[in-house]
Design a protein that fits this description.
3 helices; elongated; two-stranded parallel sheet; about 35% helix; two-stranded antiparallel ribbon; Rossmann fold; alpha+beta
Length: about 110
Amino acid sequence: MYNFTIPSTLKAYFDHLAIAGETFQYTSEGPEGLLKNLNASVIIASGGDYTQPPYSAMDHAGPYIEAFLSFLGITVEQIYVAPGTAGEAKEQSIAKAKQAIAANFSD
């Protein structure tokens, strides 16, 4: 997460993925994602800890990524977060995120 949202390079990549007629289409009911039956897991690291109020209101990365993928028809199953990677708890935060990922992807 950069400055409460996604890096500009990821935004540019998303802009290249959103292609009318290929990854989404316009309908009389509004846009419809064409990448249905796909699931995604998202991993987000941030220098600060934005997982608890009042700072959680500043986290726009997770909601933005989920909204964008949903727009394309992709279901976000889980968002994993490694908060506070710029602080003393960096190693603990990364280890905790890795444990959560491993727990969800183990046999």
